[in-house]
Write a structure and sequence with these properties.
Helix 14 crosses helix 16. The protein has 382 residues and is an alpha+beta fold. It folds into 3 domains: 179 residues, Transcription factor LuxR-like, autoinducer-binding domain (Beta-Lactamase), CATH 3.30.450; 116 residues, Beta-Lactamase (2-Layer Sandwich), CATH 3.30.450.20; 72 residues, Winged helix-like DNA-binding domain superfamily/Winged helix DNA-binding domain (Arc Repressor Mutant, subunit A, Orthogonal Bundle), CATH 1.10.10. The chain has a 5-stranded antiparallel sheet, sandwiched between helices. The chain has a 5-stranded antiparallel sheet with strand order 7-6-12-11-10. A two-stranded antiparallel sheet has the order 8-9. The longest helix is centred in the middle third of the chain and has 31 residues. The N terminus and C terminus are likely disordered.
Length: 382
């Protein structure tokens, strides 16, 4: 016979799970539900957030226990220094402490701890991936105070009881939001995009094209429709596009970052990039079902809006991981002194890497590096 304490614990968890699914139907409940989760697992603050894989910017969607000033500070600047940038490397549902994301000595010396966590009296956080793709990672975080100490085994155990339900609730909420978008005439929404959008099957059959996509097909500048299938007229590029679509059939795990972008040749000498997004994962599945499509292809001319997947740039210019990191930091942070501070290395080290970047890319100024990255705009970030 189980003890009264064990039965009480089960009752608390049952009620908490009910509250979590209530929040899936009414998002205004999330802040209160997060506070209940924090009380259950042993945390003082927390939230549901998303982290952009390219810009490293974090977006706090719902939170509790954090003062508005620090929420704004996180969203506007300090999320770039948050160690959860590497959280997407871990399995969905796994609880990960800060110590597992970054050596704690380095974390204590970094801006995020010194300027954001320490002033609020916090020392650690339990983080769990809820969903991830090549472009972003959504996660639950519950923060521990100095009095509570670092993430321990009891907190991990309690997180393991809660996280699966939070994940399902978030995915349910995503599907509901997408259904509402469909009810507001989804095709009209797509036609408002400046990028060409094609919803296609795994064999490249065009299921739907928005207004910009129809215009591209009509001009034939970089894409054509042959027997109803999307083609570029270039055998090598067509092969890359077919491989990306085949990978999209396997969902986010199949396509990976390497297959997300395909450079397109254009007859007028301009540069276009096609970005392939699987429609077989989480909430995006409902959109694909509506159109019998397995992938969405966004196509547009290179602009200054936002960088595409960095792996595409690294492959094109044969950059090492460190050189790529410095290149993106130049774009996101600024000059060499600021980059050195952000990366925690000496200015001389950054100068050495910048020199190698100039050699490999043909650039002569830092502005040239910024233009290079901007040339692979990612339309999905807009």
């Amino acid at each position: 016979m189980r003890s009264a304490t064990a039965l009480d614990g089960e009752e608390v968890l049952t009620r908490l799970v009910g509250h979590i699914y209530d929040a899936a139907l009414d998002p205004t409940l999330w802040s209160d539900v997060l506070a209940k989760i924090g009380e259950f697992v042993g945390g003082e603050a927390g939230g549901l957030l998303a982290k952009d894989a390219i810009s490293k910017i974090g977006t706090p969607y719902y939170h509790y226990g954090v003062e508005p000033h620090y929420v704004q500070l996180y969203a506007s600047s300090h999320s770039k220094f948050d160690p959860v940038s590497s959280l997407s490397l871990f399995e969905v549902g796994q609880t990960v402490s800060i110590l597992e994301l970054e050596p704690y000595e380095e974390f204590n010396e970094g801006r995020f701890f010194r300027e954001w966590m320490r002033p609020q009296g916090w020392v650690d956080a339990a983080n769990a991936v809820l969903d991830k793709s090549p472009l972003s990672c959504s996660f639950l975080t519950i923060i521990r105070s100095q009095a509570q100490g670092h993430v321990d085994e009891d907190m991990r155990r309690r997180m393991s009881l809660v996280v699966p339900h939070v994940r399902r609730a978030v995915l349910i909420g995503n599907v509901i939001d997408l259904k509402r978008a469909e009810a507001a005439t989804f095709a009209d929404l797509l036609d408002g995009l400046s990028a060409g959008l094609f919803l296609v099957g795994g064999d490249g059959l065009i299921i739907h094209a928005n207004a910009a996509g129809d215009e591209m097909l009509g001009s034939g500048v970089c894409l054509r429709s042959v027997r109803g299938r999307l083609t570029t007229g270039d055998n090598h590029v067509d092969k890359c596009l077919r491989e990306s679509l085949a990978a999209a059939n396997r969902g986010d795990g199949g396509i990976g970052i390497k297959g997300i972008a395909v450079p397109l040749p254009a007859r007028n000498g301009e540069h276009y990039v096609a970005h392939v997004l699987p429609l077989a994962s989480s909430g995006r599945r409902s959109v694909g079902t509506a159109y019998a499509a397995t992938a969405a292809i966004f196509v547009r001319k290179a602009t200054m809006e936002s960088p595409s997947a960095p792996e595409i740039i690294a492959r094109m210019y044969d950059l090492t991981p460190t050189e790529l990191r410095v290149l993106l930091a130049i774009v996101e942070v600024g000059g060499i002194p600021d980059v050195a501070e952000a990366l925690g290395v000496a200015e001389s080290t950054v100068k050495t890497h910048v020199g190698r970047l100039f050699e490999k890319t043909g650039g002569r100024r830092q502005a040239d590096l910024v233009k290079l990255v901007a040339g692979f705009a990612m339309p999905l970030a807009a």
